[in-house]
Design a protein that fits this description.
This protein has 615 residues and is α+β, with helices and mostly antiparallel strands. Helices cover 43% and strands 15% of the residues. The chain has a six-stranded antiparallel beta sheet with strand order 2-3-1-9-8-10. The longest helix is centred in the middle third of the chain and has 16 residues, at 237-252. The protein is globular.
């Protein structure tokens, strides 16, 4: 919904520089082009950029002050069930003066404090300043749908929806060695750390409290493991799922502006569309990214689904110079080297949607909740992995990229590492062989999440991997979705991430997830009367992009590939043993296996070349 940022000087006599706070706020203009606001009081300052979705009048202006003047709130997100609290608030003497969820959030805080958090169904990152106690409280939603970054620098606490606002305020832009290692081995930095020194994330489901004198406390307010353990048995899982999923979508359609759907043509987004149709929603617009390469293209299925339900359909392809330009833009919005490799496409389709809608529904989260990735299948029979590792690589099979990846994955010995590296494209042995980098990252956060997963699902590597991804890989996907859609000033909502679904699915027996050829059994069972066989039985493509072809054959990338081969990136000691010219030459000769090694380096090269000079 918005971009938030703030400054708290821990030196009490130091006053807020309004120019710095304004620059921070306006670096996030893309997150909120509709309105802007500042609050400054001595050593505390809040900035806000607003994308008006609920109560688009000036009544929803932020920073938002409580009626008694004690509290100041800046808030990014949506509380979907906010209207449920109207009678309760009114019976406790509160007047409701807007139709905004912002007002409800602050009044619930006044009434109950942070105990109200578990009752919220939504996505949010917010900060509240208590003028009386001189205390700043910042909170992030359960799954980390909405981002929140912070830095302690020169006796000052800075926070913002995106890292760029921190750099704009003067926090140094320096890469962290630990972050660099995680990027190479694990594709992204998990937990509270980031790619940067002295820039951290508030963890999903956590609260930070910063007192004016400098005391800092951190508390976990939502624990998925405990929630799953306390979940009552679900008697009729298919009926429960269908009803809860429909209600989740109904809640996420609450808006005073048009809502559309990111429609890939796969099972997840098609299920969203089918639910909307089943609930009699009319005039829905759908948006799709297509590819000229048949093996990557699901646009025909997306078009079929939109036409089936009489909804609008819009599609596009991104190639050559347009692709290159969107790569540069998405790198800026992402604040880090892109790693899912679909960010330019998602940004472009969001920009296409912008004239028609302000909100998009996405199918994100379904794969991590219900076992939708092929890579989970490798964990079904660990003993088979040992056999594959023993046989080793057979030339006629390694030409198949999926089998080649499986044989490399099978070299991993420890069960914990099978889970921790399940979402990686390159594995420790590969990185040692190709990059000359032998020491894997510490991965302390990942190891803790694995420990929780193992205790919740003992001797069940598949379920451990799902729980692990819900706390790591999914967070990176949600960040991608938020940055790309907000880059086009659009809000993204994820119906599969309703807390009732997350907890309930986590409590079900394996058979509800892993039955059938392609798994996600409960979703297919719930949707079998709503969706055609073409969707239910179609082999998952996902938003996969043929980057190997693009960077070697597209005219827009030829010059960049030459620049990449001589990049300053390879002057960094960590990369000094990489023979990048050889890797590129092998790719140009048609060895597509090189793509997974080259792309993270290529995207880091693009980031180094274009991002730091923005500050």
């Amino acid at each position: 919904m918005c971009g938030i940022n703030g400054i708290l000087h821990l030196q009490l006599q130091k006053k807020i520089d309004e120019r710095i706070l304004t620059k921070m706020r306006d670096s996030l203009e893309h997150r909120g082009p509709d309105d802007k606001g500042l609050f400054i009081a001595n050593n505390i300052g809040f900035g806000h950029r607003r994308l008006s979705v609920l109560d688009i009048s000036s009544a929803g202006h932020q920073p938002f002050l409580s009626d008694d003047g004690r509290y100041v709130l800046v808030y990014n997100g949506e509380i979907y069930n906010f209207k449920e609290f109207y009678p309760e608030l009114k019976s406790n003497g509160f007047d409701i003066r807007t139709t905004s969820d912002t007002e409800v959030l602050l009044k619930l805080f006044q009434l109950y404090g942070l105990k109200m958090l578990n009752r919220l169904n939504g996505m949010f990152a917010f900060a509240i300043w208590d003028k009386m106690e001189k205390k700043l409280t910042i909170v992030r939603d359960r799954m980390g749908v909405k981002p929140l970054y912070y830095s302690f620098y020169k006796e000052t606490f800075y926070f913002a929806s995106e890292q760029k606002a921190l750099f704009t305020a003067g926090v140094p832009l320096k890469m962290a060695q630990d972050g660099l290692e995680e990027y190479i081995f694990n594709r992204f930095v998990a937990g509270e750390n980031t790619l940067y020194q002295n820039v951290k994330k508030v963890l999903p489901g956590h609260i930070m409290t910063i007192h004016e004198g400098g005391k800092v406390t951190t508390k976990k307010w939502w624990d998925l493991k405990k929630e799953i353990q306390n979940q009552l048995e679900i008697k009729n899982p298919v009926e429960w799922f269908r009803e809860t999923f429909d209600d989740s979508i109904k809640l996420r359609m609450i808006s005073d502006v048009p809502v559309g759907v990111l429609l890939s043509g796969g099972l997840d987004s098609s299920s969203i569309l089918a639910s909307l149709f089943n609930q009699n929603y009319k005039d829905i617009q759908t948006f799709n990214i297509g590819f000229k390469e048949k093996e990557h293209n699901e646009a025909h299925l997306a078009k079929m689904m939109a036409e089936k339900f009489d909804y609008g359909f819009h599609t596009m392809q991104l190639e050559d110079k347009n692709l290159y330009d969107q790569l540069i833009r998405s790198t800026y919005f992402q604040d880090e080297p892109i790693m899912h490799l679909s960010e330019p496409q998602l940004l472009a389709v969001s920009q296409m949607a912008k004239p028609s809608v302000k909100v998009l529904l996405s199918g994100e989260g379904a794969d991590e909740l219900m076992g939708g990735y092929v890579r989970y299948k490798a964990l079904q029979y660990p003993s088979l992995l040992n056999s594959i590792a023993t046989i080793g690589k057979l030339d006629f099979l390694t030409k198949n990229l999926r089998y080649d990846k499986l044989t490399r994955y099978a070299q991993i010995i420890k069960k914990s590492d099978l889970v921790i590296y399940n979402g990686s494209n390159n594995y420790p042995n590969d990185i040692a062989k190709i990059f000359g980098i032998n020491a894997p990252p510490k991965n302390e956060y990942r190891k803790q999440i694995y420990k929780d997963a193992k205790s919740l699902y003992p001797n069940n590597l598949r379920r451990q991997a799902l729980y692990f991804d819900q706390h790591t890989y999914l967070c990176s996907l949600l960040d991608r979705n938020d940055r790309c859609t907000m880059g086009a000033s659009i809000e993204c909502r994820e119906p599969f991430l309703d807390p009732r679904l997350i907890i309930g699915l986590g409590s079900l027996e394996d058979k509800w997830l892993f039955t059938g050829k392609k798994w996600k059994f409960i979703l297919k069972s719930a949707m079998e009367k709503r969706l055609p066989d073409e969707i239910l039985k179609f082999t998952k493509v996902g938003l996969s992009v043929p980057w190997g072809d693009y960077i070697t054959k597209s005219p827009a990338f030829k010059e960049e590939l030459e620049s990449f081969s001589k990049s300053d990136l390879f002057q960094i000691p960590y990369f000094e043993h990489i023979n990048i010219q050889k890797l590129v030459q092998n790719l140009q000769k048609g060895d597509t296996r090189m793509t997974s090694y080259i792309m993270p380096l290529f995207m880091m090269h693009i980031w180094m070349k274009t991002y730091p000079n923005k500050f």
